[in-house]
Structure formats: C-alpha cells, structure tokens
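## retry 2 of 3
previous attempt timed out at serialization; input unchanged, resubmitting
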Amino acid sequence: MTLAKPSSFLSAPTRRQLLKAGGAAVLTTPFVSRAWAATTEINMLAWYGHGEPDMVAEYEAANNVKFVPKYYAGGDNMLALIAQSPPGTYDLILSDGEFVQQLNLAGYIDEMNPADYPLDDMLHEDFEQFPGHWADGKMYSMMLRGGHLGVSYNKNSVTAEEATSYECFWKPELEGKVGHFDWHLPTLGMMSLYNGNGA
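## retry succeeded, writing output
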C-alpha cells in the first residue's frame, strides 16, 4: 500500500504545505500546533476503511486535521475518479504500488522529497527505493505497509508438513477457523485450483 502526492495543480498550497511539513505519508508524527484555530481538512482518495475513526481519529486529534476520504474499490476506479475530478480535489492518494507508475505517467502526482520521509526506518533496505515508487532517481510515492500474501498457520493446529499443501484448509478440525486477509489473488485462486476448479 502506497501514498502518493497529487500533482501540484491539484491541491491548495496550505494543505500541501501542511502535509509536507509533517511527512503525513507515514501518519505518525504530530506537526500542527494546537494554537491554530481552524481544523485543516485533508482530502484523501483511498481504499475503503482508511479514513475511518479507528484509523485516523488519534492522528486527527493530535494534529488538528480532519481527513475527508473519498473511497474507491479497485485501481481502475481510482484512476477514473482522478481523471474526472477537478483540480484541487485530492491532497493524498492511497494506492496499491502497481498503480503509482500509471499515476506518474498520467501526470497526476508530484515528485516527493525523500528527506521528508523516514526511509531509514524501513524494515529492509530493498524498500528504500522500491521499484515503481521511483522513476529516474526521483521518488513519487511512499510505502505505508507491505507484507506477504502467503499462508500463516497456528503450529498447534497445523504441522509444518501439512502447511506445505493447501489441503490443510480442508482439515475437519479447522472448519470455521480459516480466515483470509486482503487481496484475494493469488491465494484464493490457488486454493480453487487445488480444489479441482478449472483455470
């Protein structure tokens, strides 16, 4: 999941200055003085749920800001919303990494200053200049979270040997106890193939 900064012609300078001042892409460090009377609204185009109180309320309270999310489902939908929106609509775009290159090629996002973001706090140096987030040595988005789309299992219920096959999901004692997180491909597709469904 990545955060990109819409092209400068798409945003009001005061919000943009506010975001830059605090490195808002990581949403961790307070940066707005409570002495400021007005709450600053930050218009965000995002996946569903990322502007909900359990995600942003603490940050909003600490920084005197209010996220105003516009939700989308799917990268193509996100690109269409941006293309159809008037200048000044979005301050932040929360996107999957593979769409950053398309946002960049379309001129929808601005270059970001790497010094404004905690790149040295990444889990691995490979993420510091993650492909697709950078073009020609310039940064265009910041990774917010990452992970694997593999299988995690409780070793008290499934052995390491059992976990090497999707067959373990059909163990009778696991009925009603198997969950799925985030993007459904390739995991659900692979389980479907294993279960005998055609390609």
